Amino acid sequence: MSCEHYMIRQISVFSENKPGRLAAMAKACQEEDVNILAFSIAEADGFGVIRALVDKPDIAYEKLTSLGFNVAFTHVIAVEMKDEPGGLFEIASKLSEAEINIEYSYAFSGKSRAVLILRVDQVEEAVRLLLHHKFTLIASEAIY
Prior knowledge:
By secondary structure, this protein is an alpha+beta fold. 32% of the residues lie in helices and 37% in strands. The chain has two domains: 9-74, VC0802-like (2-Layer Sandwich); 76-142, VC0802-like. The chain contains five helices and six strands; from the N terminus they run βαββαβαββαα. The relative contact order is 0.22.
């Protein structure tokens, strides 16, 4: 299976850090029946970046840009991790040993599994490495 199979398009929304911006983004997605599956927010100097996995990235992109949001796509990978102490270390250490840098990540834990979303500097190499070490990656079509 190709590495592209595991490359998930994440939307990154750049916005002023002020009340109502997340609500406006969420409302726009709701209006287009776009489900936000996971997201994180980072802030710096009065601006924020909302990174989100959505089930319909193209529709979200079109709607948000039409409302004046600055939106970009970024490829991330999603890997299942053990929901126990050491689960994150297991993944991070393998990437570190291969000199693959984690630029940022966020995670979620549900009833059936924990998932780590990773933005790395060498996406294809990270996919190959994680598959080689028998980690379970989530295919892009499972997201959208």
